[in-house]
Amino acid sequence: MPRSLRKITERQKQMLEYLRSYQREHGVMPSTRDIQRHFEFASQTAAMSHLRALERKGLIQRHPHMARAVVFPADLKRPEIVDVPLYGSIAAGYAENQEQQADGSISVDVNTLGLARGSRVFALKVRGESMIGASICDGDVVILEAREPRPRDIVAALIDGETTLKRYLVSDGKPYLKAENPAFPDLIPVRNLEVQGVMQTLIRQVRRD
Amino acid sequence: MPRSLRKITERQKQMLEYLRSYQREHGVMPSTRDIQRHFEFASQTAAMSHLRALERKGLIQRHPHMARAVVFPADLKRPEIVDVPLYGSIAAGYAENQEQQADGSISVDVNTLGLARGSRVFALKVRGESMIGASICDGDVVILEAREPRPRDIVAALIDGETTLKRYLVSDGKPYLKAENPAFPDLIPVRNLEVQGVMQTLIRQVRRD
Questions:
Q1: Which of B107, B114, B202 faces A81 most closely, judged by CB atoms?
Q2: Do B71 and A28 touch (CB under 8 A)?
Q3: Hey, of B84, B108, B180, B181, which one would you mutate to test binding to chain A, going by the most A CBs within 10 A of its CB?
Q4: Contact B86, B143 (CB under 8 A)
Q5: How far apart, in whole angstroms, are the C-alpha atoms of residue B99 and residue A152?
Q6: Interface contact B27-A80, CB threshold 8 A
Q7: What CATH number has the domain bearing residue B161?
Q8: Are residues A32 and A125 part of one domain?
Q9: Which pLDDT score is estimated for A26?
Q10: Mind listing the pLDDT tens digit for each residue in A10-47?
Q11: Shared domain check, B86 and B69
């Protein structure tokens, strides 16, 4: 990115930071009057000349004759971002009651998620070691798509009223759940097995001890 | 999300889709005149009444007396997104020459990445099985931060001119690299060991066979 490596002044850095944070807060760019007020410039002309300097350096783009029409070039190329709701944790150990409240969300671009357009997705935090054989660790976040499972998919399933993350298998036409850890038993539903989502993406944050 | 579940008409869906795609392409929202042209409405009033309907349903927010000031509520709450450049693949097997060209990028919010503000980050695609003991698989993407490693960090390192992903260890004051797979040998640098980044996040896309 040669453009962003061009020298910019401390004031220009502050200006970029202000544009970004105003946009995040309000959803639109500040007007030149807003910029003037924020930086306590004597005139709107000063705000405009700062914007022009940023434009010359390729750090913003402006549309002539349009108020607040300041654009970050990176935002134009940016792929579509999906906000995936995160619903508490899920035991990759023994089944447990699922917490239904969203704990926040995860924002990732559609390509990285590898999702088909219009998919319904949600995320769960993995607890326990029952899926370690599939390289899914305690603390990992899995993003799941609400769709019908196929055999060998890794799924979040409600089995006899409790939720767990396991591999979905079918034997003699009957579905059951299998851990990827020999220390954990297969889960064969007594009453019913309801798949809530199929694992699509895994995100792991390395913890610093 | 009760709001998005409220019934919207087919035309309103098209309108939302148009607003999103115009914003992605131009960085700003379309004006009511743009909307009128796109949908071939007889007047701008029709465009405005559609926008009002979307606003009543909570699907957009508008700033009064500001042109193009249409905002998606979800964008206001959205955390900051980071575009991480993806640089080809890295062998988690034996060392290999690193491809230096960016293969695209991955966009993720800062919270999910778990990054300190201002970190320099890049991503590499893992090849091979040498880190399987740390639950890092062939095909996983690792996001690395360009910083000094601490012992036991997983790092991308240039060892004697070639790049590899391994655990960084220090013995008798001398750094070396260790695989997380007993089938792979430790890598002790003959000449020099240069750490390019410390693994911070892992992203795995489940492949559908």
A1: B107
A2: yes
A3: B108
A4: no
A5: 34
A6: no
A7: 2.10.109.10
A8: no
A9: 80
A10: 888 899 889 988 887 787 788 889 999 999 999 989 99
A11: no
3-state secondary structure A166-196: EEEEEECCEEEEECCCCCCCCECCCCCEEEE
Q: Token match 């996983």: residue?
A: B140
Q: Is residue B153 in some structural domain?
A: yes
Are residues B200 and A201, on separate chains, in Cβ contact within 8 Å? Answer: no
Last residue of a domain, one of A77, A102, A132: A77
Q: Please tell me which residue in A166, A171, A174, A178 is annotated as part of the active site.
A: A166
Contact criterion met (CB below 8 Å) for A202 and A143 = yes
Q: What are phi and psi of B16, to 5 degrees?
A: -60, -45
Determine the Cα–Cα distance for residues B63 and B71; give it in Å rounded to an integer: 8
In a domain, A111, yes or no: yes
Residues of A with CB under 8 A from a CB of B: 20, 24-28, 61, 63, 66-69, 71-72, 74-76, 78-81, 83, 104, 106-109, 111-114, 132, 135-137, 141, 154, 199-206
Chain B residues interacting with chain A (CB cutoff of 8 angstroms)? 24-28, 61, 63, 66-69, 71-72, 74-76, 78-81, 83, 104, 106-109, 111-114, 132, 135-137, 141, 154, 199-206
The tens-digit pLDDT sequence of chain B (209 residues) is 344 445 778 888 899 889 988 887 787 788 889 999 999 999 989 998 999 898 888 888 887 777 777 777 767 666 778 888 888 776 665 444 444 556 678 888 888 888 777 788 899 999 889 999 999 999 999 999 999 999 999 999 987 766 789 999 999 988 999 999 999 988 887 777 889 999 999 999 998 76
Q: What are phi and psi of B44, to 5 degrees?
A: -70, -25
Instruction: Show which of B50, B77, B104 is a domain's final residue.
Output: B77
Full residue range of the structural domain in which residue A196 is found: 81-203
Residues A174 and A92 in one domain: yes
**pLDDT over 90 for what percent of chain A?**
35
Question: Is residue A7 annotated as a catalytic residue, yes or no?
Answer: no
Residue B168, token pair as written in the block: 């960084």
Average of per-residue pLDDT across A130-134: 95
Query: Do A192 and A112 reside in the same domain of the chain?
Result: yes
Residue A209 has pLDDT above 70, yes or no: no
Contact A91, A131 (CB under 8 A): no
Contact B32, B15 (CB under 8 A): no
Question: Are A85 and A149 in the same domain?
Answer: yes
For position B81, what pLDDT does the model report?
A: 81
Distance from CA of B148 to the nearest CA of A (A): 14
Smallest Cβ–Cβ distance between A78 and the set B107, B114, B135 belongs to: B107
Instruction: Name the residue among B28, B63, B204 with its Cβ closest to that of A69.
Output: B28
Q: Domain for residue B209, yes or no? A: no
A63 and A123 within one domain: no
Q: For chain B, how many structural domains are there in total?
A: 2
Is residue B184 a part of any domain in this protein? yes
**Do A115 and A157 lie in a common domain?**
yes
